Amino acid sequence: MTNGKAASQGARPHGRPAALDTPDLSTAVRVWKVNQVRSKKAPYQVRWTVAGKVKAVSFPTVALAESRRSELWQAMRRGEAFDRKSGLPESELREAAARASARPDPSWWDFSREYMAGRWRTAAAKTREGLADSLATVGLAMMEEGKKAPSPELARLAIRWAVVPGHADQEPPEELQAACLWLRQRSLPLSALTDPKVVRDVQYRLSFKLDDSPAAGETYKRRRRGFNTAMEYAVECGYLAENPLLGVKRAGASGGDVVDPRVLVNATQGTQLLTAVSYIGSVNRNRGRRLVAFFACQLYAAMRPAEAVGLRERDCYLPETGWGTLTLRETRPVSGTKWTDSGKRHDRRGLKSREAKADRPVPIPPPLVAMLRQHLREFGTAADGRVFANERGGVLGTSSYWRVWQEARPIALPPDKVDSPLAQRPYDLRHTCITNWLNAGVPVAEVARRAGNSPEVIHRRYEGCIDGHEEVNNKKIEKAMGWG
Question: Model-level pTM greater than 0.70?
Fold first, then answer.
């Protein structure tokens, strides 16, 4: 009804919304003609009675007053009951109740900032960065199109910048100002995620890169996981009735996180790579020599690079002979300075997927024991007791050991292997170690414990890397068929 708002405001006692009151209804209604009252702002008054109680509301023009009288008259003619307290027809009470219970519908821009502000305090730096990437990726599907719309690259950067709580009261960098303004004004509301077309676009953005090539399996999983937790928050806050990801599956092949056997090195190649690392850098700088044991920790103990960076001397049991033990307690993952509480590039965290104070003892073979003893004799430790440091004694950065590794591969490998997937990343040494343990017959549960994974992950990721299964299975078939 056109002027229901004015009438309801004038009829509510003590300013309480009528929709919040329990209706006390009556059909004993009488509507009088519009009359004039002594008021400069609203001289035209509509009066009606509900069960003998007089209700009134005034308007600045006679047209508005007549329109409101007509609405009340039509409701009375339809036989609607009126509320004794507010004087409103039952249909208007229902409309008011619907408005009062309607879900808020923030834009994707505002929702992303709200969600990150709530998650920031309890999330690790890498988690913050991953969530920001998820929100920015989905944001490409949650903005309007137009001639002045920012490019996908700028839009992603703008959202990643905006969701950092510390930037809430800051002006965007100059190169992002236009993109931030567009996204702030023309991001789609959260309710757009109830549209299957929008959800399909979101799914595409999660699954593909900006150049339309498929994203890596782990990238897709991380993005979808971040988006899913944001949608759970949206449901919890009442913004959405249900998670739009329910029932949505990724298009295309699955299993993107299975380890490619081509990245694995054999024993000889592993030794050659570690030797080549020792050649990198001048004699005085020792760029490579100080990283030989670092890479060996991944090849012989399946340590993640961030776990090796956080290793301290007090966590090492290195006997003169026999096996030793590394008790892993801390990781030092690399994140941008804007994601960490300390403002430094390296975050300081517990072990991955473990309680904050949990540790993981890993037995290490004699060759690795010897390498670590030699490393400590030659280079000592960082000021805080860490075994591996950069040349200035600081935290060893990803770029430092990555450059050494890329320089070492052409020295260690023949030309036809340099351009192959073989050991392209230092992380491939960890994959090699886990595969070697499995091929040696170490139980999957023990491999999972040493590597810091679940048995399910070990089964899924490394099944295609285990040698000898085909021959064993062939013999089982021969025996069953009576051929053997």
Answer: no
